Amino acid sequence: MLYKILVIGRKRNQIVASVVDSLQQSNYSVVTKSAIPDNLEGIDLIVDVTLKLTSIRSEGLPAIKVVQSPDHLCVSDFDDFLVYPFSSSELLKRVNLCLHRRSDYLRRFPQYLEMISHDVYHPLKAVNFVLGLTRVGNYGDSLEQLRSVLDTSCSTITATLGVLTDLKSELSQQPGGNIEYINIANLLHSIHAQFSNSALAQNINFSLIIEPEVANVCLYANYSHLWRMVCNLVVNAFKYTPASGFVTIKLDTQVGRFLRLAVQDTGVGITSMQLEQLNIDLGISGCNGTFTLDGTGSHIARAGLGLRTVKYVADCYQANVNVFSQVGEGSTFVIIFNLEANFQCYSQEKRLLVANAAS
Predict the structure, then answer these.
(1) Which of 311 and 248 is assigned the larger pLDDT?
(2) CATH fold of 4-102, please?
(3) Could you give the residue range(s) of every CATH 3.40.50.2300 domain in the chain?
(4) What's the gap between Cα 139 and its chain centre?
(5) CA dist 271 to 76, 302, 327, Å?
(6) What is the mean pLDDT of residues 217-229?
(7) 99 and 27 in contact (C-beta within 8 Å)?
(8) Are 323 and 334 in contact (CB under 8 A)?
(9) Do residues 260 and 251 make contact, with C-beta atoms less than 8 angstroms apart?
(10) What value does the mean pLDDT take over residues 242-246?
(11) Which residues 6+ apart lie within 8 Å of 48 measured at CB?
């Protein structure tokens, strides 16, 4: 595929000429403009070589900004940057990275929309069920239980629709959307509070255990992505756990720089043969796997989209997924984060430029 790159800057400028020459030698199609044009159709990447502090209107396209020092960088407006002076190889490395990300996100676009549709469908189905009860005057044990179901469903829908905003960021090559340094314990406390009323309504014992040594551990990630990943596990645990059963979220650490997040239930469990099939579905090894149930409550040997989302998010943040299950005793889903790999990847993505400034 021949990528078309728009270079913003004066053609006779030495830096602009050097950038254009390097790109053309690497067989990119290059267009040079002194300012951003109104029509960006056909453009795959913008390289801003004006050395100005003001941002450019990129219309969702990935953009690389050339700056004179890290202090001149406005990281919220650009996917990448180059500090002048820079080498041709450094320029091409940044260009290739931005184009690769864009191509990857566009390839995953249909899957992303399917995930969002899935996450909206089920809470809407719950809302419709409650409305059906109200139409016939059958309120069950209490109106409070129905209110809890509505609250949880509407909150889930709101959070999922918020992911559409992240989708715009993903397609415009802001890696992972809005990457933050997130305290995982705080996120889990919020999720536990979110589902506490639903647990009471379903007569499920829902607990959160956070080991003291990981109470302040943080990860670079998109908050909405992690929220969806954990919520999908909790929703599945609730769905397959009978009344008086137990669902537990636990956060602890393993040897080395690893963080372990587990969601455990005392639900129906899954057979070893079905786990093996699900290993293949999700592309995970060992005793890993996921499962869903169909409308009749019987097992189906497929990985549901909700759990595929769990695997997808885990892959994005250097994490492994493990599942342990026995029929009649329940299942435990374990997400293991490599803190060192996460820091090395996303501290760079967040433009921590101390090393560059010192060199």
Answers:
(1) 248
(2) Rossmann fold (3.40.50)
(3) 4-102
(4) 38
(5) 48, 13, 6
(6) 87
(7) no
(8) yes
(9) yes
(10) 93
(11) 8, 9, 56, 63, 64, 65, 66, 78
* H or E element in which residue 156 lies: helix 143-171
CATH topology of domain 175-359: Heat Shock Protein 90 (3.30.565)
- Checking if the pLDDT of 351 tops 70, the result is no
Q: Take residue 140 and report the two structure tokens written for it.
A: 């069950």
In the chain the beta strands, taken as DSSP E runs, fall at: 4-8, 29-33, 45-48, 63-67, 80-83, 179-183, 205-210, 218-222, 246-254, 258-265, 292-293, 299-300, 319-326, 330-338
Residues 6+ apart with CB under 8 A from 201: 144, 145, 148, 149
- DSSP summary character for residue 35: S
Q: How far apart (Å, rounded) are the C-alpha atoms in residues 180 and 226?
A: 11
Q: How many CB atoms lie within 10 A of CB 264?
A: 21
Q: How is the beta sheet containing 258-265 ordered, strand by strand?
A: 205-210, 246-254, 258-265, 330-338, 319-326
Judged against a pLDDT cut of 90, whether residue 74 lies above it is answered with: no
Q: How far is CA 84 from CA 17, 80, 87, 98, 234, in A?
A: 14, 13, 9, 18, 48
**Tens of pLDDT, residues 149-166:** 777 777 667 666 655 555
